[in-house]
Amino acid sequence: VDLDTAKQELEEFIPHVRSISDSSVRKMAGRDLMRFKQFKKQGVAVKFGRFSEKENNQIRKNIEEFLSITGIDSAEKLLFTSRYPEDKETISRLKAENLFCEKLSEGIPRPWRLIYYRARKMFDPNNYKGRYTDEEKEKLKKYHAMHGNDWKKISEMMSRSNLSVAMKYSEIKSAINYGPWSKEETQKLMHAVEEVIRKRIETEDANCHSSSEKSNRDILIAREKLYQKLPWTEIEAKVGTRYWRQCKQKWTTILTNKMTKGQQLYRGIKGLQAKINLIKRLHEIKVDDAIEVNWEELSNAIGDVPKAYVQAKFYKLKVSCVPSWQKKTFSEIIDYLFEKKLPELEEKL
């Protein structure tokens, strides 16, 4: 199909497709469009965001089957072919002959590119190497000074994954403070968040109001926009002394205090009741994966709070109460909390 037709057809599945580069759209037309249409016939919507455990398992299955078909002896060779220059030509030929794109994305209603990135993250042996030593941090700063944001080159020099070196550099590129937040830092964070939200709202409203109207009015903001999909790396740069994850956690705390008018919702008797409500609600919805939980709807199990606050409380609950939780599925964790922890909490209450 020609480019305009491809954009038109893809727009049904990917609303933001017109902001994607033409070369990427052409690839999606070839690798994704037919799959998306088939999923639509089955009543399955195209997904974005975090991968579920079911999807991760499907990727593992697809990779294993492709390795057995082709005789390529490792997922690393398949997904990081450039690391093996002596085998590159053979592996590339086998991938083309055996339709690697189609095989990798089989059974997963997502754009091929996202599935490929997820597979690379899962199977990169350089992705799980523990904490960075002081020596590694210094090397990372040095390599960044030499190569800028060429994370592929830096990852090869560091024997760490692209994602790992990029995220670590965002933490160490400036003097990061790990202690309590100062008043000045908190103010900087609040101004930074206000600035990015105002900019976003004004862009969205550009066609609805004249410039004179906009300058004379306060912007009314839907509550969800105060904590959903904020550009945390941009906010991190504006704050200067904290990295993005700290900014996100602090903003959640500030919002929670504002929304609850400073009430301690998770302490004492209220805290026990909140834990009981949360466990009961999670058990009632009967989902197999955390990705399927609507945390927004669950927030009233605790009170009028952002969904990130509820997710953080659930994380603490499973870590502190469920033995070997890392080896359990989401539904097993919920069953354990419901059967073992809930009676104990109700007795305390």
Automatic annotation (TrEMBL):
GO terms for cellular component: nucleolus. Residues 124-161 form the HTH myb-type domain. Residues 124-172, 173-255 form the Myb-like domain. One of its GO terms (biological process) is termination of RNA polymerase I transcription. It comes from Bucorvus abyssinicus (Northern ground-hornbill). It comes from the Eukaryota. GO terms for molecular function: chromatin binding. Pfam families: Myb_DNA-bind_6. CDD domains: SANT. This is TTF1 factor.
